[in-house]
Fold:
Amino acid sequence: MFIVMSMDNAPPHEFSQIIFGVIAGFAFFFCNLAGVRLTADTLSEEKRNGTLGLLFLTNLRGLDVVLGKMSACSVQAVFGLMAIAPVMMVPLLMGGVDPAEVGRMVGVLFAALFMSLSVGMACSALFKSSKAAIGVTALLILLLIFGAPIFGIVLAEYSVISRSHSELIAGFSTGAMFPLAFSGGFAAAVFYQSLAMTLGVGVTALGFAVWRAPRAWQDREAKPNAIVKLRPANAISHRTKLLNDNPAFWLGVRRRWRPLLVWAALFAGFMLWLWGLLENGRWWLGEEEYLWTLWFTFTGFKIWIVSAVCDRFREDRQEGALELLLATPLNFSDFSFGQARRLLWQFGLPLGLVLVTVPFMMFDSAVDTWPYYFVGLAILVADIWAMHFVGMRLSLTSRKPSFSGSGVALRILFLPWIIFLGVVFLIVAIGQLLSPRAPDWFNQEFVLGLWFFVCLGNNFFWGIRAMNDLKANFRQVAARAAGA
Structure:
């Protein structure tokens, strides 16, 4: 309410600058997201289906295939950006926004869109798995946007380079051009340096995709030592026992390096947290540090689990192996129990280590902060339970299996925030109409309780709905997904 009132009292030129910044910010975010959503799984999907080689039996070249796939997948993003460009002229007509500023921002958005789509095509040509292609695309775009500025800030903080050199290094990122496009912070040299970097990355990535595409459809030659090498007898017996216990779990633990990645990520996060602690000169921890540490750690685990719960049926649908699973006598309870064991195998020990530290944090904090710990732990358990069933269902029912994880995250992780903020804003708006003074019951305990019940209600709604649907119609849903 305060923000709205301040905007109402603001002069028209300041109001137009706010509108222009919000529109440009959202557009820049979605332009960088376009490669992840639209092109990161184009060529890799053709490789999984075995149809990429058929394209090269014709007179098509790598350039034709890459540009054709990129054009077909990105036409909606280009049209959407073309529709946003006239809207950005409205703040210009209101005053307070320079015409050159609008022109620079339109160029920045189209350059970011081209770079994102090109990086997605390059990763799609390099990887066969949709999960790997989408994940590497997102990681590369984040590094291109934030890598150089963070590197320059760290070097300047330790007096390795000067501030001017730090700004020069930041110009080698694809994200520096966005804040510099505004007239208030425009620096021509660094802006055009960042713009040239963005276009250069896009052209390089597109060239790599064109070079890689004709070679990507061929399967790699099997290594002789991988064929000749025999597993030890104890490893074979262990795998046989897993197969006899639960075939779904046996299929899920073939990639034995997955728990190592979780341990590596947990160790990297701990080292980053320890570095930040020492940089601030803190040799002791307080209640806020404990709560923020747990919140970031639990959020990281939830995001990773969101992707893991969709792996089984997503991979089988993409590789065309779902029909083989339906030919077995396995039912929903077998797959559900196997996936639960697989999640415990991958995340159980790292997450258990984090949970062991929670009692120490609680006893080192004031008693009035304990409800935050209990609420966080309860929501963690409820989120994992709901993601388990919702992930299985969406990996079978999603039109694009590669984006089933984003559907789980939207329902379980993001939707509670939308509901919670909507309820809070509604209560505040009604309270402002009835009385300018906030009621006594609207305090931290009420907000925490509201958040707890919103999360639990949301989890029970989606989790029970998915569980009952799979229990009653698992074979029908899986058969429909296999025939899609």
Notes: The two ends are 48 Å apart (CA to CA). The mean pLDDT is 82.
